[in-house]
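queue> pop job 88
queue> type: inverse folding (structure -> sequence)
queue> payload:
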């Protein structure tokens, strides 16, 4: 029987009694969707899943992002390879650490819902796992905002731009990334979302304005927008909203992009190998009231 065990922190729960290599029962899907809203970050320890298993499990929660590159599982473009391993002079994946705080795909018109990551190889030094992932709770961050900010920004929107994130990555020491070409920027144009988004599972407000992609509060003048964005960024990254996940081989980690931010820690060297496989799930189902209603009806059975 599947069991969701809260971590007793501001985010997080461990899910036991389920084998993600097997088909997902409707009742378990319903419980996991509810758990994502409640806990934000779910850990499934001790899993053994193939790339196809990872894709099939993730697809229950929404459409999967597909890309065509050498950083994807051969024949399964929905599964990305996150790794610093080089074979025959070529990297086998992309390195996802050192990206600073963000929430994936907020720059899209259809934003991200969840990430599903499977840890295959985790670097260690002096017995300590490296490459941890940190998370911050955006339900709690919204709740704690002063009333004057909640009221002042109610109904306002923010522009999210992939180029901001890309330029931040280019500025990292040792980065060899070129600027985005006009064609690349055109494929990922900026998008606009509410600063305070109603979470489709919990029905509560979240602070949906992350430092990785948000560039402007559209209803404010430029200087006031800059000032308010910095207030929001400083507020949401307070330690009291954060947890850190230390990876173990066999972990499947799943987190809700709508209610959390995350940051991968770049504390390992090129010779300290890390290998994780990932699916990125779009929020193309979870904002559909019929999907959420069906999940809740199933959870009550």
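queue> result:
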């Amino acid at each position: 029987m599947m069991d969701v065990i809260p971590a007793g922190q501001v985010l997080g729960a461990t899910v036991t009694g389920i084998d993600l290599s097997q088909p997902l029962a409707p009742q378990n899907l319903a419980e996991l969707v509810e758990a994502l809203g409640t806990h934000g970050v779910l850990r499934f320890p001790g899993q053994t899943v193939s790339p196809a298993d990872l894709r099939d499990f993730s697809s229950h929660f929404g459409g999967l992002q597909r890309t065509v590159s050498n950083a994807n599982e051969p024949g399964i473009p929905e599964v990305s390879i996150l790794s610093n391993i080089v074979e025959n002079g070529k990297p086998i994946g992309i390195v996802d650490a050192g990206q600073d705080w963000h929430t994936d795909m907020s720059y899209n018109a259809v934003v991200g819902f969840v990430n599903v990551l499977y840890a295959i190889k985790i670097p260690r030094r002096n017995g300590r796992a490296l490459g941890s992932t940190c998370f911050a709770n955006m339900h709690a961050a919204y709740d704690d905002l002063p009333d004057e900010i909640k009221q002042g920004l109610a109904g306002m929107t923010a522009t999210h731009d992939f180029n901001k994130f890309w330029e931040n990555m280019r500025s990292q020491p040792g980065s060899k990334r070129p600027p985005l070409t006009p064609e690349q920027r055109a494929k990922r144009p900026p998008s606009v979302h509410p600063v305070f988004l109603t979470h489709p599972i919990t029905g509560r407000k979240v602070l949906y304005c992350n430092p990785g992609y948000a560039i402007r509060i559209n209803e404010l003048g430029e200087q006031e927008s800059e000032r308010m964005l910095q207030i929001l960024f400083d507020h949401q990254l307070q330690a009291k909203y954060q947890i850190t996940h230390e990876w173990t081989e066999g972990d499947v980690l799943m987190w809700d992009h709508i209610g959390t931010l995350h940051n991968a820690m770049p504390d390992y060297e090129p010779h300290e190998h890390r290998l994780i496989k990932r699916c990125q799930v779009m929020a193309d189902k979870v904002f559909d009231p019929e999907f959420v209603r069906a999940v809740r009806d199933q959870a009550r059975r």
